[in-house]
Structures are given as C-alpha cells and as structure tokens.
Design a protein that fits this description.
Layout lengths: L5 H39 L16 H28 L1 H8 L2
Helix pairs in contact: 1-2
C-alpha cells in the first residue's frame, strides 16, 4: 500500500492546474491564429487554404492517425470558438471587411 500525503495531493493538484492552464493558453493561441480564416469564412463564405508545409513523419501509422485526429479535433474546437467570438462582434468585423 502506498501512503499519499497532503503534499503529494497538493503537488498533483498543481500539476493538473498547470496542465489546464497550458491547454487553455494553447487553445487561445490557436484561436488567435485562426482568426483570419474564421473571419474570411464568416464574411466571404470561403476561406483561403494557406500555405502547406511538407514534413517527414517517422512514427507508426497508428500513432500518426491518433495525432492527426487529436489535432483535427482541437483545431475544430478552436475554430468554432473563434467564430463564436467573432460572431459576438460581427458588426465591427463587417466594418473592418468593407472598404
């Protein structure tokens, strides 16, 4: 049996809080990066594809699929959140988009 002290429990809470904070910061940075694409989609009903950067992967195909699925899910969530934020200020967005 392993005894868990209050210090261990406190450290565990700090680690979880730090991970949640890191996730939230990453998510907000993704939303900022997706702002232009989300605005294009809302105002012009299309979004540019951006520049693709080829890269080499040296992972198992299963791991690659898992990483791709997780990344797609995270990006989709960030994109939807960004659209929601932009929707709340859509009138200002239209002013910026029209010459």
């Amino acid at each position: 049996m392993v005894a868990i002290t209050m210090a261990d429990a406190s450290d565990n809470c700090l680690i979880k809080r730090d991970l949640c904070t890191a996730y939230a910061l990453l998510f907000e940075k993704m939303c900022m990066a997706l702002g232009g694409r989300a605005a294009e989609s809302m105002i012009f009903n299309q979004a540019s594809t951006g520049k693709e950067q080829p890269g080499q992967r040296r992972f198992s195909q299963r791991l690659v699929r898992t990483m791709d699925e997780e990344a797609l899910t995270l990006v989709a969530q960030a994109f939807l959140h960004t659209q929601k934020v932009l929707q709340e200020s859509k009138d200002k967005l239209h002013k910026l988009a029209t010459p």
